[in-house]
Amino acid sequence: MIGDSKKKYIKNELNSGVSLKKKNSLKFDVSSAFYAEVDSIDSLRKLLGNDVVRANDIFVLGGGTNVLFSNDYHGVVIQVGIKGIEKIFEDAEYVHIEIGAGEDWPSVVEYAVSKGWGGIENLALVPGTAGAAPVQNIACYGHNLHETLLFVTAINIEDGSKKNFSCTECNFGYRTSIFKNELKSQFVIVSIILRLNKNPVLNTSYNSRYESVENELFELGDPPYTVKDVYQAIINIRQRKLPDVEKIGTVGSVFKNPLISFEQFEKIRSICPDIHCYPERQLDYSSHEQYRKEKGNKVKIPAAWLIEEMGWAGKRIGDCGIWKTQPINIVNYGNATPEEYLGFIDIVKDAVYNNYGIKLETEVVVV
Ligand SMILES: Cc1cc2nc3c(=O)[nH]c(=O)nc-3n(C[C@H](O)[C@H](O)[C@H](O)COP(=O)(O)OP(=O)(O)OC[C@H]3O[C@@H](n4cnc5c(N)ncnc54)[C@H](O)[C@@H]3O)c2cc1C
User: Fold this and answer.
1) Phi/psi of residue 355, nearest 5 degrees
2) Atom of ligand 1 nearest to the CA of 60
3) Is the pLDDT reported for residue 189 higher than 50?
4) 5 pLDDT band (50/70/90 cuts)?
């Protein structure tokens, strides 16, 4: 153990031996050999020029809600704390806002909803920072970040230069972007620009095995519904279904929803007759039969459904467990080690493969 969780560190400076226990939502007791939290582009550039930083591996950390530290990190963890939300453009229809990478994403959504601006209300309560949101193109309840995002501004780790990436240049896909692939570990995102709609078009299409946004809205009151209603509906669903990140070690969905051929889908339907399927890139919740007739060859199916159908929802080994109301979520009930947690992931993967012939891919970033 190289870090002491009680030791204080100095912002905008390189610190050695810092505990990451409170900086990863799985609450693993791991440390970083070097750590720096930067709150400006100038501080970030200065840090990137430091000899120790240049001589070591770098890992960029946001809120730590999608990272699985498998061990102590022997390089430099840079946490981006750049704050600020600024309106940079407005016309009759749209507002563009630039958001510092270190802003808390749920607070950004709350801010947009409080102004009545539409576009990100379906992404309510996705934990983490604004800067990490484009990395895996956060998505849920019928909306993908890329549908609202205009630009990402990032600093090149090698030479400190600044680059603006348009939405197209980010190569967004399902739970992925250029920052997870071609440019992995090469840029630090410092801000993002979103285009929000002053005349919001609500997306209430999400429905799953147990719930739908429409039903949730119906519980809230009569139409017409507002951005605020959709936001509240999503919050209600999430709070019922997901573990409280303050109390339980979690990274949300550990697995990606698998992409399979129609032939495979037919086989799965002989085991799980009602299972839904969705298009690969979009979270389109129209009927799968209709989609099947109209679209291409591959479909995405809910990994949670597969796990639940095996009777594994709520399964627990030691302090690792499958969250009962969201079986794609593997939690740490308290004292699980990274090794035990990774072992449990493998057990679930093997069981799914043995039952359905499907190889689950992990969504969480393993460091
Ligand atoms: C309870 C729970 C529910 C969740 N629900 C959802 C959901 O509905 N939909 C969804 O898409 N995700 C969900 N997630 C996953 C997570 O919230 C998102 O992936 C989020 O964007 C991670 O943000 P973060 O700041 O914590 O990033 P981190 O976990 O710190 O980092 C994630 C990745 O982004 C990189 N990164 C972070 N910041 C930067 C930066 N400034 N520049 C460059 N790279 C950076 C890291 O290197 C790492 O590769 C959930 C997680 C939890 C715990």
Assistant:
1) -80, -40
2) 47
3) yes
4) low
The residue annotated as part of the active site, out of 216, 253, 308, 309, is 253
How far, in Å, CA of 293 to CA of 28, rounded?
Answer: 46
Sign of the CA dihedral running 62, 67, 72, 76: negative
CB 66 near ligand 1, within 6 Å: yes
Do 67 and 94 reside in the same domain of the chain? no
* 168: DSSP letter: G
118, 25: one domain: no
What whole-number distance in Å separates Cα of residue 88 and Cα of residue 158? Answer: 29
Nearest atom, ligand 1, residue 189 CA? 42
Active site residue 195: no
- Taking the C-alpha atoms of residue 85 and residue 103, their distance in angstroms, rounded to an integer, is 8
Structure tokens at 254: 């550990």
Ligand 1 midpoint to CA 140 (Å): 13
Tell me, in angstroms, the distance from the centre of ligand 1 to residue 80's CA.
13
> Whole domain around residue 144: which residue ranges?
85-197
Considering the domain architecture, whether residues 170 and 192 belong to the same structural domain is answered as yes
The yes-or-no verdict on residue 269 having pLDDT over 60 is: yes
Give the 3-state secondary structure percentages of the chain, helix then strand then coil, rounded to 5.
30, 25, 45
pLDDT digits (tens, 9 = 90+) for 76-88: 999 999 999 999 9
Nearest CA residue ID for atom 6, ligand 1 = 126
Task: Dump pLDDT digits (tens) for 9-18.
Answer: 899 999 999 9
In a domain, 268, yes or no: yes
The H or E element that residue 95 is part of is strand 94-100
β pairing state of 73-80 and 58-61: parallel
Does residue 20 have its Cβ closer than 6 Å to ligand 1?
Answer: no
- Mutating to test ligand 1, I would choose from 126, 147, 239 the residue with most ligand atoms within 8 A of its C-beta, which is 126
Verify whether residue 240 is a known catalytic residue. Answer: no
